[in-house]
Every structure is written in C-alpha cells, then in structure tokens.
Amino acid sequence: MILTANGGPENFKPGELPVPSIGPNQLLVRVLAGSVNPIDIKLRKTGNFGYGPGSVLGFDVAGKVEKVGAGVTDFHPADDVYYSPDFGLPGGNAEFNVVNADIVAHKPPSLSWLEAGAVPLAGMTAYGALFERANLRLGQTVLIINSTGGVGSIATQLAHRAGAYVIAVCSGPNMALARSFGADRVIDRNQEDVIAIVKEEHPHGVDIVLDCAGFDWVARCMDLVRPMGQIVTIVNPSGELALGYRKNITLHYSFLRRDRRVLESLSNLIERNLIKPVINKVFRMEEIADAHRLLEQGGGFGKIALSVWT
Ligand SMILES: NC(=O)c1ccc[n+]([C@@H]2O[C@H](COP(=O)([O-])OP(=O)(O)OC[C@H]3O[C@@H](n4cnc5c(N)ncnc54)[C@H](OP(=O)(O)O)[C@@H]3O)[C@@H](O)[C@H]2O)c1
Questions:
Q1: Ligand 1: residues whose CB is within 6 Å?
Q2: pLDDT 10s digits, 137-196
Q3: 7, 131, 232, 270: least surrounded by Cβ within 10 Å?
Q4: Whose CA is nearest to atom 8 of ligand 1?
Q5: pTM here?
C-alpha cells in the first residue's frame, strides 16, 4: 500500500512496485502479516524519516524468506521469520520487503502469522524499556501506565514473568485484561485517583515507572517513585520534571532498538507460554486506512493486525 500524500488515512492507495533486489547480508521476505503502530500514524501525517509521497509504511513483519543475500548463513529460503523493518527504509505494508538479516529472528512456531506480526516492534520496545534501560530485577515494584496497549500488553506480562510486583494502569474495560497479564494491582485511570492510590499503597515509592502513554504521566509519577528510583518513558514527556532532581530519579528516554537477540528472547518466552501477543482486530492490507482510523480513534487494547495474504 503506497502513501500518495502525507495527511489522512485516505491517502493510502494500492499500487504495483518492482520486487526489490537484495544486497549482501540481506533477506527478501514475502510478507504474510504485520500490524499498525502509532508510529505509522505519526509518519503518515508528518512524512518524517523520509516517508513522503510514494513511500511504504509498516514496521512489523511476519513472513517467509524468499531469497538470501551473500554472506547470510542463519536463514534460508522458506524460513518463517519476524522482525521490525528499520525506519527510513521501505516498510512492510507490501508483498515483499528487504531487510538486513541481523535484525531478523525465526518466527515462534506456536504463533499464527497474525500473532507473530503483532510482536516485533511492541515486544522489543517493552523488553528494551524494562530490561535494558531500567534493568528490572526480581521483586521490584513496577508501575505501568497504559498497561494494555500495544507495548504495555507485552510489558505487563514481561514484568510479571520477571518477578516484579506489577501495578497496571488502564481504563475500566481493560482491567480484566491487565489482570490476565499477571498484574498484581490494576487501577482504572478514569474512575480512580492513580496518584493517590499508589502513594497510599506504596508510601516509600515504587522502584520503576514505565510510561507507555505520554501526556504528563512522567511529571505526575515523579511523586510516586522512590528516591534513586527510575522512570522509563517511550513517549516524549511533558510537564514539570524538576522533582526528579531532589529525589535523584533516573529518567530514561527509551526508543526501540532492533536486536535479533531480543526477538529470540521474546520467542523463547512465547514458546514456553509465558507471554502472548494480544490482537484486538484484524484488517486485510487493502483495509489499512480503516486500521489506521481505528488505532487513531483510541479506546482499544493490544494490537491491530494486518493480513497480507487474503
Ligand atoms: N519509544 C519507542 O520506541 C516507542 C515504541 C512503540 C510505541 N511508542 C509510543 O508509545 C505510545 C504507546 O504505543 P502503543 O502501541 O502501546 O499504543 P496504543 O496501543 O495505541 O495505546 C493506546 C491506549 O493508550 C491508553 N491511553 C490513551 N490515553 C491515555 C492517557 N491519557 N493516559 C494513559 N493511557 C492512555 C488507552 O488505553 P486505556 O484506555 O486502557 O488506558 C489506549 O487504548 C505511542 O505514543 C507510541 O508512539 C514508542
């Protein structure tokens, strides 16, 4: 699906492009599934990273290796793989995609194509934020804001499996889902006073806040973190952050880092049934405008998946 102009979702049009050629250490992948992420919407609107008219978006791929370039030893034609296409390159909303082999992993066999296509971007973001930035340790207390969105759904399960006491913040209809991820405490951000509740239940402060929502959550949560504690945000924070100095809080800005080893760790957890992707709704690739509209409208949970083969 080609973006004919930056702006609204009506600007996607089906189109024919030549099958891309591959270079050394690259794979040509036949795309079978993917998903929509908030970054698709931001890039569709702004054209950042070079995604202007004529470009192809899509930052999650599950598919089959069609060809391997010189120097590739870990993959062979017909292998099932999954990955997040790099920003700035043609994305996965297409029948074929070229990718550097070092950011690709074998697809977890137990997942359907649609489930696998929902994992890479959100999964690597969640893993990176919790384990590479905050260095989450057994027994720590983690407060997760937006615990049932694309990233939060995986992060909540990961934090639970890592032995943390997990406080999940979401809206009422998603509370049961957050509990199913293993959250120890779930707070309704619309009906309850998140800050007052966490303060009362954790008077010495939580170890880690993971902000998957943005807005002024980082500023508001400064008060909830213990001295020397940490906040990781995956969205640009706004509001007054000065309290962080007085409490010696570490604030991490965490951005997706594509890493085959992280995808392999996620595959390992998936195959052991310890985490699972959550799909809210499936669209065919031709219906991508509707998929964007649904994500933009908000109020959902988990991921919006895209199927390419029907
Ligand atoms: N840094 C990175 O590398 C990186 C990677 C991936 C995503 N992101 C960013 O992270 C954010 C989340 O991504 P995602 O894919 O998880 O998003 P998502 O699935 O679209 O999250 C949507 C959910 O956010 C919750 N929400 C909406 N407004 C909120 C508010 N004011 N306060 C708290 N929660 C609110 C809602 O759930 P409830 O109603 O249940 O609360 C909503 O369903 C996006 O801004 C995205 O661009 C950054």
A1: 37-39, 122, 125, 145-146, 148-152, 170-171, 174, 189, 212-215, 234-235, 254-256, 295, 298-301
A2: 999 999 999 999 999 999 999 999 999 999 999 999 999 999 999 999 999 999 999 999
A3: 7
A4: 234
A5: 0.98
Q: Domains in the chain, please, with CATH?
A: 2-119+277-307 (3.90.180.10), 122-253 (3.40.50.720)
Q: Which of 104, 107, 80 is nearest to 260 (CA)?
A: 104
* pLDDT per residue as tens digits for the range 202-245: 999 999 999 999 999 999 999 999 999 999 999 999 999 999 99
pLDDT, tens digit (0-9, with 9 covering 90-100), for 294-307: 999 998 999 999 99
Looking up tokens 């004919």 gives 4
Tell me the C-alpha to C-alpha distance, in Å, between residue 98 and each of 33, 169, 209, 242: 15, 38, 36, 45
Encoded tokens for 200:
């009362």
Cα of 230 from ligand 1 centre, angstroms: 20
Q: Please, are residues 2 and 56 in contact by the beta-carbon 8 Å criterion?
A: yes
Q: Which residues share a beta bridge with 198?
A: none
CA of 234 to the centre of ligand 1 (A): 9
For residue 310, name the pLDDT band (cuts at 50, 70, 90). low
**Separation of 213 CA from ligand 1 center, angstroms?**
4
pLDDT for the residue 309: 65
Largest CA distance in the chain: 60
Contacts of 68 (CB under 8 A, 6+ apart): 22, 26, 27, 28, 75, 76, 77, 101
Task: Output the 3-class SS for 230-284.
Answer: EEEECCCCCCCCCHHHHCCCEEEECCCCCCHHHHHHHHHHHHCCCCCCCEEEEEE
Best of 151, 158, 175, 192 for a ligand 1 pocket test (most atoms within 8 Å of beta carbon): 151
| Closest CA relative to residue 127, chosen from 235, 5, 243, 275 | 275
Protein residue whose Cα sits closest to atom 28 of ligand 1: 213
Report the nearest atom of ligand 1 relative to the CA of 148: 40
